[in-house]
């Protein structure tokens, strides 16, 4: 096992594996096993199976409690955005797992070390190994360090519709009242245009137009978000 | 809350909810909420979101430990068979959740009480409520009572290929050696037929034929299973 990896895990995440072979297995890609059959190694695929389910519950539990007003459909969308391949592959890189993964030569030469699917699996297999070595709470502490701050910062809210996202952004700093006011309606019945303004605690923060009230509100929220974030 | 439900939960599963409103919410279908808007009820959909992830981890962890030799692909198939709609809807009925779910009239009249999707959601929302009320271990104890005995009895192994299934069935009562012996090969090259026998600890338990060695082994395993189970 690479000592640098062990040091990094300890320094950055305060993680010390009791059973280092579990960590080694988490970092062993099947391509490496196939090229070293005489070594009787195990690849990380079973750990990934386990880690996937651990992450799913930890993220679900976090979202459930953090967003008490979000309906199931939006919770599901937000969860998908967090646990999907390209998100997890970025987290794996951030944790430097790409530096330590053991690959076969073919996989290495074809750029496997930067392949999102491989890195995503790596993140999950690491989590599976940590869970087996130290239990659910230890795996949770790691996810709390690596993933939840990003969720809290709103990194995944872009998956949401504009009104939901505006609400989450505004409520980060406490309870606020958001109100949409229809201010104009014009044009013939089949081509009606609605204009809506959005207010936070009575203060105008954006306006928008659309072919229905709903679309006008979404447009107003999008414009408010754009001006808040600019 | 129906007292009979509370009694049943206590008697059959030794479960006593501290916060009965969680249990009520788990049993409240959205159709009921829609027909009783004045009551300001919450439906069970957010609990189902949570319960789904709890079950996924509990089943994954169980399979990971119970089947140390099963590769990831087969673990995934087995897990899917256990947590899929028609399996969970049967577990929900077994727990009598169908008797206590609160439905709107429309849903009731269209047979919602027997609809697999609704019952599956109900099982998951119950698990979510139990988890929030009493934690992961309490939810696990319930799953250990209701689901795992069925997995251990082999109810879901029919999802596996015949060789895997035969292995799991035979190894339930301890370690055994399973051997496939090619006993015959005949016919022209493009229409070759292979005959294979399968032995457990040296005893012949089945034989089969096929157009490849692999297919002949699967056939032998299927025949061995059929005679073991008859």
TrEMBL record, chains A, B:
Protein family per UniProt: Belongs to the ribonuclease III family.
Obligatory cofactor(s): Mg(2+)
Reported function: Digests double-stranded RNA. Involved in the processing of primary rRNA transcript to yield the immediate precursors to the large and small rRNAs (23S and 16S). Also processes some mRNAs, and tRNAs when they are encoded in the rRNA operon. Digests double-stranded RNA. Involved in the processing of primary rRNA transcript to yield the immediate precursors to the large and small rRNAs (23S and 16S). Processes some mRNAs, and tRNAs when they are encoded in the rRNA operon. Processes pre-crRNA and tracrRNA of type II CRISPR loci if present in the organism.
DRBM domain segment(s): 161-230
PANTHER family named in the record: RIBONUCLEASE 3, RIBONUCLEASE III
Coiled-coil positions: none
Key words, A-Z: Cytoplasm, Endonuclease, Hydrolase, Magnesium, Metal-binding, mRNA processing, Nuclease, RNA-binding, rRNA processing, rRNA-binding, tRNA processing
Superkingdom, natural source: Bacteria
Protein name stated in the entry: Ribonuclease 3
InterPro entries: dsRBD_dom, RNase_III, RNase_III_dom, RNase_III_sf
GO terms under cellular component: cytoplasm
Record localization: Cytoplasm
Residue stretches making up the RNase III domain: 6-135
Matches recorded under CDD domains: DSRM_RNAse_III_family, RIBOc
First-tier enzyme category under EC: hydrolase
Active site: 52, 124
MF (Gene Ontology): double-stranded RNA binding; identical protein binding; metal ion binding; ribonuclease III activity; rRNA binding
Subcellular location, principal: cytoplasm
Binding, Mg(2+): 48, 121, 124
